[in-house]
């Protein structure tokens, strides 16, 4: 197959980790007889520096006309002082929205080799961690009105959170369909004891649950969910939630699996074109030092192979290569443990290529 991929290296460690993922993609292409071509696109801080805005129209166009998009990470202290609508993160939000990517899928799965790196007690970890956070990605408070004004001699800030039924229904369907291919359990997370958006969320989810009788459905309040993820993560299969709750809970979920550096994500909408990225940020403190963990991005590339290109075998080969390298005891700093060998970002890439 021939595929064109828009590549957004981004800021901080973005360029280093994307480089390793592209090496893996090239190796997959060679091994399985595909042709992958890459179109470099600027987004985030680099785009602000070069073009004066986080997501220039021409860069967005490259993403819209490619078969899929691979992203490293965006943001950094250099742009922290910018007003909200001029920040690197704004580029990412605009990209998700313009591409219509309402469904963000973040697997929280414990690699057995990394069990010791989990901050949870061994007896909790032993019960297994393997769930997916299905996060609504282009609605809610992220995309409501944001404003700061003077009122009665002080500043007042407002962020509007709203959801329409169709936005809830389409993400709910993704969750039920995903659960159907897994352990058939959906936990919908909301704050229905306080928020109207959550009460509507719950109503729509209950309606959908009727359509999927084979799926075991339950609701959970978000504060309780934060506790349950730490207390007994084995109870979760598919977790579905709104944008901001999903942002927060997916970081918590990644941490209990040992390292946020390991977790990829896919963002999809109606077609097969998706945006694939690790869930971690741009880690400016270690940028340019060849220390970052490239595995989250490499696994994001594997998700692209699977979900956008229907290349299941290729995706599994990449995952198996990652697993083999972990078996060999190779670790980047974020997941280093006693008795293991500390490797750099590019050495981790070398090892995965060799295993592939
Ligand atoms: C994420 C990130 C983004 C988000 C930021 C960078 C805007 O934290 O992908 O989880 O909040 O969605
Ligand atoms: Mg986040």
Automatic annotation (TrEMBL):
UniProt keywords, alphabetically: Amino-acid biosynthesis, Branched-chain amino acid biosynthesis, Cytoplasm, Leucine biosynthesis, Magnesium, Manganese, Metal-binding, NAD, Oxidoreductase
GO molecular function terms noted in the UniProt entry: 3-isopropylmalate dehydrogenase activity; magnesium ion binding; NAD binding
Enzyme Commission no: 1.1.1.85
Pathway: Amino-acid biosynthesis; L-leucine biosynthesis; L-leucine from 3-methyl-2-oxobutanoate: step 3/4
InterPro entries: IsoCit/isopropylmalate_DH_CS, IsoPropMal-DH-like_dom, Isopropylmalate_DH
Isopropylmalate dehydrogenase-like domain span: 4-352
Binding positions for Mg(2+) per the UniProt entry: 223, 247, 251
Cofactor note: Binds 1 Mg(2+) or Mn(2+) ion per subunit.
Transmembrane segments: none
GO cellular component, as recorded: cytosol
GO biological process: L-leucine biosynthetic process
Enzyme class at the top of the EC tree: oxidoreductase
Residues annotated as binding substrate: 96, 106, 135, 223
Keyword Zinc among UniProt keywords: no
Binding-site residues, NAD(+): 76-89, 281-293
Catalytic activity: (2R,3S)-3-isopropylmalate + NAD(+) = 4-methyl-2-oxopentanoate + CO2 + NADH
A Pfam family of this chain: Iso_dh
Keyword Ribosomal protein: no
SUPFAM superfamilies: Isocitrate/Isopropylmalate dehydrogenase-like
Alphabetical list of HAMAP family matching this protein: LeuB_type1
Protein family (similarity comment): Belongs to the isocitrate and isopropylmalate dehydrogenases family. LeuB type 1 subfamily.
Protein name: 3-isopropylmalate dehydrogenase
Gene name of the encoded protein: leuB
């Amino acid at each position: 197959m021939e595929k064109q991929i828009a590549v957004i290296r981004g800021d901080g460690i973005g360029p280093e980790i994307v480089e390793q993922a592209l090496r893996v993609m090239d190796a997959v292409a060679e091994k399985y007889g595909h042709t992958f071509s890459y179109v470099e696109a600027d987004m985030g801080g680099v785009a602000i520096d070069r073009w004066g805005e986080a997501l220039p129209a021409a860069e967005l166009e490259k993403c819209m006309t490619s078969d899929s998009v691979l992203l490293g990470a965006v943001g950094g202290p250099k742009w922290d002082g910018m007003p909200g609508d001029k920040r690197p993160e704004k580029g990412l939000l605009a990209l998700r929205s313009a591409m219509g990517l309402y469904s963000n899928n973040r697997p929280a799965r414990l690699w057995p080799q990394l069990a010791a790196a989990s901050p949870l007690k061994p007896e909790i970890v032993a019960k297994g961690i393997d769930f997916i956070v299905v996060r609504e990605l282009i609605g809610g408070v992220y995309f409501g009105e944001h404003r700061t004004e003077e009122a009665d001699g002080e500043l007042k800030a407002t962020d509007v959170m709203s959801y329409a039924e169709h936005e809830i229904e389409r993400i709910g369907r993704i969750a039920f369909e995903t659960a159907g291919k897994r352990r058939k359990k959906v936990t919908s997370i909301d704050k229905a004891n306080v928020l109207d958006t959550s009460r509507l969320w719950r109503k729509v989810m209950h309606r959908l649950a009727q359509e999927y009788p084979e799926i075991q459905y339950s609701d959970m309040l978000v504060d309780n969910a934060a506790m349950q993820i730490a207390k007994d993560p084995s109870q979760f299969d598919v977790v579905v939630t709104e944008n901001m709750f999903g942002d927060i809970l997916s970081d918590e979920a990644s941490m209990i699996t040992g390292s946020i550096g390991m977790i990829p994500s896919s963002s999809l909408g109606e077609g097969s074109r998706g945006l694939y990225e690790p869930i971690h940020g741009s880690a400016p403190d270690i940028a340019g030092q060849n220390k970052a963990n490239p595995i989250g991005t490499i696994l994001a590339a594997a998700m692209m192979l699977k979900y956008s290109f229907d290349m299941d075998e290729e995706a599994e080969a990449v995952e198996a290569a990652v697993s083999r390298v972990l078996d060999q005891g190779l670790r980047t700093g974020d997941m280093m443990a006693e008795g293991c060998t500390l490797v750099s970002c590019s050495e981790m890439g070398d090892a995965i290529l060799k295993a592939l």
